[in-house]
Design goal:
Blueprint (H helix, E strand, L loop, with lengths): L1 H11 L7 H6 L1 H11 L3 E10 L6 E5 H13 L4 E12 L2 E11 L7 E12 L2 E8 L2 H7 L5
Parallel strand pairs: 1-6
Antiparallel strand pairs: 1-2, 3-4, 4-5, 5-6
Length: 146
Amino acid sequence: MSQENVEIVRSLQPSPDTDLVALFRDEATATALAETVAPLFHDDFEADFEDWTPGERIRFAGLEGLRAAWLDWLDPWESYRTEIEDVIDAGDKVVVLARDYGRRPGMAAEVSVVAGAVWTFREGKIAKAAFYLDRSQALEAAGLSE
């Protein structure tokens, strides 16, 4: 089942040229996307994001909460994209290692961060997605190390 979990998570990752700001801010696109992927998510799915305050995390419920979390995260950005570097099978968890690129209004160049996410499965569906700005924290949360 874990290879199937890897493929599910891989299918949810945006292409490197997808602007997440445009994707999540467009109501029709975000709604259509949520309807398409809803069968992959557990009824009590939660998203867990790092807060801007170091060490603090914020939790959001459901796919609506996932979008709200991304909208909150993307608020200061004019464009934001992610490039997936690796997807790792960790049993009932799947770790995504990525490099995110963002550009704020008035900036000519993008800034980047090496990030990670842990997608947790329960009963064959995604029960939780936790996003980290520090790749080692994502690996540790999945019981792995760099």
